[in-house]
Structures are given as C-alpha cells and as structure tokens.
C-alpha cells in the first residue's frame, strides 16, 4: 500500500488526484486556468466536493476554454445558475467569467499566464520539507503577495488560502509530506 499525504482519503478519485496531479508542475495555460476556476469554486467547500463535480464543471464551462468563458452572455450565466451539476453560486459564476477576461488580459501583457504566475517562484517549484500535518501552512507570505496582486488586477475569490491551494495544486510549491511516496528532496 502506498503511503500518501495526510489529507488523502480512501476515495479512488482523491488518490488518483494526489498521485497524478497535485504538486506536479503545470506550465500549460489551459490547465492553469482550469485549476484557477476549480480553486475559486472550492472556496468555503471541501476539495473532494469539487473533484466529484469536476466533469460537470468541465461540461458546463466548455472544457474550461477561457476564450469562450470570457465571452459568456447573460443567457449562459443564467443557464449555469440552473446547472445542478456544479456549484450554483452567483458570485463564483460571475467571477469565473470576469477572471477569464482578466486571464486573457494577462496573457496579452505577459505572453502567457504561465509566465506571469511562475515568475513568482522564478519558474521552478518551491520544495518544502514538511513531516507533519501541522507544518503545512494554509497561507504564506508569497500566497499573500500573489493574492494581493491578483486582487489588484481585479480577480475575485483569490484570497491567500485559495492562492496557496492553487500553488499546491499546480506544483508551484511541493507540499507532499516526507512520509508520502511522492515526496522529493
């Protein structure tokens, strides 16, 4: 049996996510946007809730195509509010649309969102060396800074806790604990 990080349950979905995605560096704008949307919808909820609805989100949000999402009409917004397969939070749905518009703006300015976001860690993951659950932070000075910068640009639902979870998910930080089979030194 594989030893995994403390937060992984016996859910196959959770285990697959942990083993194949979480903490793996992502440099592709499409995937970075998908995680941005998923993390913003997760605010105040459990990650397993989002994972269980991920395919529904994918369908509802046009495979996370930020070009399409940025151009969503009022009709599309209203249909999303009726979609029981996703989190039907008015503000989060509105933020997905405006965040997609801002994502495009950053791409235009920096060449890619990846260049913009990975610049905060000089293009390579921060490898933490945590041994216990208590050591893994919910926020850091860096997530505070990124959160503040994103909010200044107009992004919504990007508080420091959401940003740190995003950093973990896309591998900007590697927080696999030392007893986890995915741990790297």
Automatic annotation (TrEMBL):
Positions that bind Zn(2+): 5, 18, 176, 180
GO terms of molecular function: DNA-3-methyladenine glycosylase activity; metal ion binding
Coiled-coil stretches: none
Gene3D superfamilies, per database record: Hypothetical protein, domain 2
Catalysed reactions, as listed in the record: Hydrolysis of alkylated DNA, releasing 3-methyladenine
GO biological process, one term: base-excision repair
EC number from the UniProt entry: 3.2.2.20
Keyword field contains Cell wall biogenesis/degradation: no
Keywords attached to this entry: DNA damage, DNA repair, Hydrolase, Metal-binding, Zinc
EC primary class: hydrolase
Record function comment: Hydrolysis of the deoxyribose N-glycosidic bond to excise 3-methyladenine from the damaged DNA polymer formed by alkylation lesions.
PANTHER family: DNA-3-METHYLADENINE GLYCOSYLASE 1 (PTHR30037), DNA-3-METHYLADENINE GLYCOSYLASE I (PTHR30037:SF4)
Protein name: DNA-3-methyladenine glycosylase I
Higher taxonomy: Bacteria, Pseudomonadati, Bacteroidota, Flavobacteriia, Flavobacteriales
